[in-house]
Amino acid sequence: MTGPALFLLLAGLGAIAWVSARARALRLQTVARETGRRDAVHSLPGYHGWYVALWTLAPAVLFLAVWANIAPGLVTQAVLADPAAQSLPMDDFSRSAILGEARSIATGAQAGAFNPLAQGLVEPYRAAISKYGVAGAVLAIVLAFAGGAYAFTRVRPDFRARTRVERLVMATLLIASLLAIVTTVGIVASLLWESFRFFSMVNPLDFLFGTKWSPQSAAMGYGNEDAFGAVPLFWGTIFIGAIIAMVVAIPLGLMSAIYLTQYAKPVVRKWMKPTLEMLAGVPTVVYGYFAALTIAPALRDFAVMIGIHGASSESALAAGLVMGVMIIPFVSSMADDSIAAVPQSMRDGSLAMGATTSETIRKVLIPAALPGVVGGVLLAVSRAIGETMIVVMAAGLAANLTLNPFASVTTVTTQIVQLLTGDQEFDSAKTLAAFALGLVLFVVTLLLNIVALRVVKKYREAYE
Amino acid sequence: MTEPTNPLAIANPKMSARDVKVFYGAKQAIKGVSIDVDMDNVTAFIGPSGCGKSTFLRTLNRMNDTVASARVEGTITLDGEDIYSPSMDVVQLRARVGMVFQKPNPFPKSIYENIAYGPRIHGLAHAKADLDVVVEKSLRRAGLWDEVKDRLHDSGTALSGGQQQRLCIGRAIAVEPEVILMDEPCSALDPIATAKIEELIHELRGRYAIVIVTHNMQQAARVSQRTAFFHLGDLVEYGVTGDIFTNPTQERTKDYITGRYG
Ligand SMILES: Nc1ncnc2c1ncn2[C@@H]1O[C@H](COP(=O)(O)OP(=O)(O)O)[C@@H](O)[C@H]1O
Ligand SMILES: [Mg+2]
């Protein structure tokens, strides 16, 4: 039996279980209500329906999930037990290659065999696959009927189906959230582990404070010293994400927030705010090629024109400017929220003293909103330093330690991409360096987020 | 419906309103109020909640300008000068007519900076020494100096509610206003803090024209010499406080005073 057919069949069984259990509960409860006391009836009939449907489906689906994992092993065993498998070579590698080929042909993923031995195993494979497939399907259906029947017999007017369904819903939600946490923990653990391996090859101090970055030379066998000094990367990241981008994003974001909260008429605000926030929805790759193809060449030409040396067609400035634009909606919506959270009475108090609107904004609203704005800026910085696409496309690969914004610099994220694309062995310091960089980025971003959220929260409390 | 009584005839009113109407969009909140406020007396506005006391008070320093839907008709003068005329600078007006709000609203700055805020924006004091003098004088007048003189640089928001409200009064005083408008200044305070504010109002009387909105009739009786009773956007009766409370001429005033509504 094929997968989709089985799925449809189970779904159908579930639906039948729901409908019939609900009908039965309704009927029993109608009777009970006429004769019994008020507590003779517990859950709404729909809950009975769900209860029985879940009992029909859950065991079967769980069984299929387990079966999908053990069936291939059983199939292989069956094939190996076949007389045709006696002639297989003994060494594991060629053996599994032949088995793999036979399986591909049997499932139709491959047309013909390269290895004549594989051809002989196709039929046993086919037979075993279909045998275990049918067995799995039959077992699943039996389970569905058994579960459904068990649950169906429990349908009584006063059966607490609602409690059980609610409990199951809660358990499902809990598992879903645990899944996200477990995944994150797993990612962090792997990051830590690979970084640990890297630091067993390269001194952490050399990595954190070294100023020369040339992982290629390490890969070519010149040794690991002096090849993994990440300071130029850190500097490039800070230069682009925390300096140039913020020089653009903070004033523009703040000013647009002030305009939107203090000056804009409600109608203007109503269309302008979403429009501004749309900037955040532009895919970063679009910003990336805008930076690389439009801004960067223009900046280089400009730099050459005014006679700046070392101007490159990939520059910190191009990447930083575009990143700044990308971050504007971030800063402005955080600032907007913070300013809006300053109580109206503060504003009235200042205006009633004879302060003008702009004095009120400068001397009362912004100072009062400052913690929130700072929190927003920190979040924006953490976003900017983790941003990859724009810098990959526009900032360049040269690990320069320079203050010249027209020069090419590289960033942590760019180098991670660089280290992990193309050929790689998983044991070399060059590849593992990507994990160490990732770890640094993760730690910094995490700290920024924690600090930012604390600042914002403190500030919120101040006005509640 | 009885005709509103004539406003008290005052020879030289500090502020004077004639046939003032206020609308919020299409809704009329004040239906033609005429009243004179003088320098030597504290004037109380009383009336049930929603009758337009705050709205009318806010017309006196044009705080209604900050409400987009609000529209004011009629004339209001300060020392005979129309405050709604185009030649009137609203910044100057508000320096002359200060305001204290229902809920204490000190700025999230130090006590010192709260007081210095007004003098700074109006350029009344530049040197630090001048500013220090203004701050001390204002805090003394607001009856707060002794309590805060050792912690002028602590945050104003860390004070108790009553102290915050006196800080707000001090803040208003610091720009040397001629009129101080108070909108239910004690409604968020406990009885002891309320008593201190009332005492302060007594002390400030004569130096500033004071208009206080209150829904507490005992308070109006205690602090004011003139009382205006508002009802549903009308000024029903205006007179000497003692007369209003003991001998109201209008039926509606009588009902309110005796607690029939409000
Ligand atoms: N900003 C506003 N927009 C619309 N209507 C308002 C506004 N402020 C007050 N009002 C209305 O005006 C009337 C008078 O309100 P208010 O002056 O606050 O009364 P009071 O201070 O006497 O309680 C009320 O009906 C109130 O709903
Ligand atoms: Mg009011």
TrEMBL record, chain A:
GO molecular function annotations of the record: phosphate transmembrane transporter activity
Species name: Sphingobium indicum BiD32
Membrane spanning stretches: 49-70, 132-153, 173-193, 233-260, 280-303, 315-335, 364-382, 432-456
Domain of life, source organism: Bacteria
Family of this protein: Belongs to the binding-protein-dependent transport system permease family. CysTW subfamily.
Matches recorded under InterPro entries: MetI-like, MetI-like_sf, Phosphate_PstC, PstC_N
Signal peptide start and end residues: none
Protein known as: Phosphate transport system permease protein
Record's GO cellular component terms: plasma membrane
Membrane topology qualifier: Multi-pass membrane protein
GO BP: phosphate ion transport
Automatic annotation (TrEMBL), chain B:
Cellular component, GO annotation: membrane
Xref: NCBIfam families: 3a0107s01c2
Keywords: ATP-binding, Nucleotide-binding, Phosphate transport, Transport
Protein's name in the database: Phosphate transport ATP-binding protein PstB (TC 3.A.1.7.1)
PANTHER family, per the entry: ABC TRANSPORTER I FAMILY MEMBER 17 (PTHR43423:SF1)
Entry GO MF terms: ATP binding; ATP hydrolysis activity; phosphate transmembrane transporter activity
Limits of the ABC transporter domain: 15-257
InterPro entries hit by this protein: AAA+_ATPase, ABC_transporter-like_ATP-bd, ABC_transporter-like_CS, P-loop_NTPase, PstB-like
Organism phylogeny: Bacteria, Pseudomonadati, Pseudomonadota, Alphaproteobacteria, Sphingomonadales
Membrane-traversing stretches: none
